[in-house]
Design a protein that fits this description.
InterPro entries: Gfo/Idh/MocA-like_OxRdtase_N (IPR000683), Gfo/Idh/MocA_Oxidoreductases (IPR051450), GFO_IDH_MocA-like_dom (IPR055170), NAD(P)-bd_dom_sf (IPR036291). This is Gfo/Idh/MocA family oxidoreductase. Helices cover 34% and strands 24% of the residues. With 343 residues, it is an alpha/beta fold. It has two domains: 145 residues, NAD(P)-binding Rossmann-like Domain (Rossmann fold, 3-Layer(aba) Sandwich); 172 residues, Dihydrodipicolinate Reductase, domain 2, CATH 3.30.360.10. Helix 4 packs parallel to helix 5, helix 5 runs antiparallel to helix 10 and helix 8 packs across helix 10. It is globular. The N terminus is likely disordered.
Length: 343
């Protein structure tokens, strides 16, 4: 495998919105190349590749994986296809960066982790938030004891779903639709990194948007972590004018971070304690997807880990699935991180 300085050669599985708007610009910004695209629609593949300058297209995942000019694949198909596409890529010896959620069940997600481990390829999950400079700084503050013993966190991640995305995310449960798998799993990638092992969840979810939806488009949850930390989340596709944010409260202080649950390297972080309130400097702000790709490229060369590893992606999925089940049943639901043998 070539060093990251020469750039990975990417095959895209899925002609998706995020591939077009975020990942291709980030790949090229790092000097990586996009050599091939696979889409189930030949027409879509041809048009999409023409717009985005991808030289080769196919409707066959196997054909893409057989190419010598593909070092790694970025999988951004609908969620139910992440499993077969990852297993096929691992079998072909290609490194895998997969969109979230990693899969639709824990068993499938752990099988993806195991397949990549067995094949000796890197598996990363495209949770962009943990790599943000704001979140790295918040983790540093918490680890350094800036808030004392952590007690609670509050995540505000209620946004308006763009019109161009109001398709399968609202209408196709079989593809993993709904706000919990789309957004709550992102929240979990942040809170898991802060607080460790999630234990149980309770939640409520509703359909409240101005559209025909087959799944929940707004949810609130509370997740308990192993040290007794409680996290509260508000996730929605239906809120057009709110700011996103993260609060962390402890025995010795509180952190309030505004505009940090986004796809852009923005937001402010404030620390409040007995000495008063002050804004915290956040150095090293970068495109969040470039961070994910750079960490992934280093991992391919044995020089680190992905921003979110396969196992960490499973843990984020586990929280989202527990929240879904709690909202469905009205009962507090354990967060299942099994099987232990796969970790």
């Amino acid at each position: 495998m070539r060093a990251p300085s020469t750039g990975l050669r990417w095959g895209l599985i899925g002609a998706s919105d995020i591939a077009a708007t975020r990942m291709i610009p980030a790949m090229r910004g790092l000097g990586h190349s996009v050599t091939a695209l696979c889409s189930s629609s030949a027409l879509r593949a041809t048009v999409w590749a023409g717009v985005h300058g991808v030289p080769h297209t196919t409707t066959s995942v196997e054909d893409l994986l057989a190419r010598d000019d593909v070092d790694a694949v970025y999988i951004s198909t609908t969620n139910e296809l992440h499993l077969p596409h990852t297993l096929a890529a691992a079998a072909a010896g290609k490194h895998v960066l997969c969109e979230k959620p990693l899969a639709l069940s824990l068993a499938d997600a752990w099988s993806m982790v195991e397949a990549c481990r067995t094949a000796g390829v890197v598996l990363g999950v495209n949770h962009h938030l943990p790599g943000a400079a704001t979140h790295r700084r918040i983790r540093e503050l918490v680890a350094a004891g800036a808030v004392g013993r952590p007690l609670a966190a509050r995540v505000s991640h209620a946004v308006a779903l763009p019109e161009r995305l109001r398709g399968w995310r609202l209408r196709d449960p079989g593809a993993g639709a709904g706000v919990v798998l789309d957004i709550t799993c992102h929240d979990a990638s942040v809170t898991n990194a802060l607080f460790g092992t999630p234990v149980e969840a309770t939640a409520l979810a509703v359909r409240q948007g101005p559209w025909e939806a087959a799944v929940e488009d707004a949810a609130m949850s509370v997740v308990r972590y192993g040290e007794g930390v409680l996290t509260q989340t508000h996730d929605a596709f239906t809120v057009a004018h709110a700011r996103t944010g993260l609060e962390v409260h402890g025995t010795g202080g509180s952190i309030t971070a505004v505009d940090v649950m986004t796809q852009n390297p923005v937001g402010t972080v404030h620390l409040h304690d007995a000495a008063g309130s002050r804004e915290i400097d956040v150095p090293g702000r970068r495109d969040l997807y470039e961070v994910v790709l750079e960490d992934f490229a280093r991992a391919v060369c044995g020089a680190g880990e992905p921003t979110v590893t396969g196992s960490q992606g499973v843990h984020a999925l586990a929280v989202a699935l527990a929240v879904q089940e709690a909202a469905r049943t009205g009962r507090t639901t354990p967060v299942d991180l099994a099987p232990a043998t796969a970790r």
